[in-house]
Design a protein that fits this description.
The chain has 122 residues and is of the alpha+beta class. It is built from two helices and five strands. The chain has a domain of 82 residues: Phenylacetic acid degradation B (Ubiquitin-like (UB roll)), CATH 3.10.20. The N and C termini lie far apart (86 Å).
């Protein structure tokens, strides 16, 4: 090394203090990380259940953070992480007009059938 100065730090030997290349890119600010929704399927469950949200820099880290945060007691067998921007949902304030088309399909509800007495569990 040509113009590099060395210094001893806490008895650890000579450490260069100038002309040291910095190969680390600045870490993104946590406020810029996207929001993910986390779904976990339990050992006895058949479906994934929404358990919370978290911020992560990418999909892989979101999955690792979700594992660390939401399955600490070894209760999950599968985790889904979904970017919040990818979720499309209906609005609770529009529930009546949104779900109204299913109300006029009476054939989906067997309320007008007579069930014989010898048919169990109906």
């Amino acid at each position: 090394m040509t113009d590099t100065e060395f210094t001893a730090e806490d008895g650890h030997g000579a450490v260069p203090t100038t002309d040291v290349p910095n190969r680390l890119a600045p870490a993104p600010v946590k406020a810029d990380w996207p929001l993910y929704e986390v779904f976990v399927r339990g050992k006895r469950g058949l479906n994934h259940v929404h358990v919370g949200s978290l911020h992560a820099p990418d999909d892989a880290m979101a999955l690792h953070h979700a594992r660390d945060v939401y399955t600490r007691r070894n209760e999950g067998v599968s985790i889904w992480v979904v970017p919040s921007v990818a979720i499309v949902a209906s609005s609770p304030s529009e529930k009546d007009p949104f779900f109204a088309p299913s109300g006029d399909k009476v054939y989906r509800h067997p309320t007008f059938y007579d069930i014989p007495d010898n048919v169990p569990h109906m």
